[in-house]
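Per reviewer request, we include the raw input and output of the structure prediction for the construct analysed in the revised manuscript.
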Amino acid sequence: MQDTPSVESLYIHWPFCTSKCYYCDFVALEQHADFQDAYHDILMKEIVTYASSLTSKPAIKTIFIGGGTPSLYPPEKLQALFDLLRTSFDLSVTTEITLEANPADVTEDRADAWELAGINRISCGVQVLDDTVLQKLNRRQRIVDVQKAASILPKYFSNISMDLIIGLPGVSNATWTKTIETICAWPVQHVSIYFLTVHEKTPLYYKVAKGDLVLPDENALLDQYEKTVAYVTGKGFMQYEISNFANPGFTSTHNIGYWNRCPYKGFGIGAASFDGTRRTVNDKNLTRYLDNGQHGTFTPLEQESLTPLQVTLERVMLSLRQANGMLLHDMVYCVGTEREKTLLASLAELEQAGLLRIENNRVKLTLRGMILENEVVLRLI
């Protein structure tokens, strides 16, 4: 047996989808519903195998069920999953249990089952309120589904996030404005607004390359983002990270754990784990995961011990993602005192360019700097 690690959060991956969105780069499987029962059984076995290897139960602060489409998790099996989690881990200090949901899956019965299982936060994937755009991206929900979800979820949950994607092809300024205004008028406590990323080898990548879909240019995206932030914060949501806005007391504890590099354990295909110095990733192939799991073998497909440079990059990048930024002293310490003069010169140049500002000895990105965060961090490191 191994000593109990300082794991604070759990991530559980449910990979099954009715259809896969063209922009998706996650481990998501469409037309694989026949494998759900077998996958659930092996997922449970992976949890038991891990928990039985520990000398005591880790105290878990947050749990996140992602995918895929976790709102398709059969309710009776989801309940069994949480029964197992309660016997395998100490959940007495758990404050946040999130389920990602497609609005098309939200019903009174499902919402009731989710609440009964112990879920207390829903992350609802809206993306944009435009049926034509969603259809072109193979996204299966429609505006009417989102409206229905917005009417059902508040009956069962007091912590609801509506998740949007800015920069989707074909979205007019008028449509985006209406989407933001509509979402902020609903009884939700959190809004996530992610920038569209075009991942290689996804259908979206090929459609953009062929010219079938056209992305907005950088200046238009910056203007739209600035106006969006101004509107959302004007409605009382606090921006605490590049893409995340919350009412007081409703920031995502689970995601903050990621940004602060806290240890977490992931279960399921493609799930990542982090112990503070080493990152591992489970096998992303469903057949191998099931076959190996039958024999009780859950060896990670990828293992990486982070180099000092990688640790520095992560600390700076993840700190600057957050609205509170990073203490200048901590940044100098991360980069190394021998590079202090170079760092300060880079900070001055980036501040002059309007990409960051230094307030009370904290380095913070401007709105433009948030969009160009990767470039800013590389300049600093």
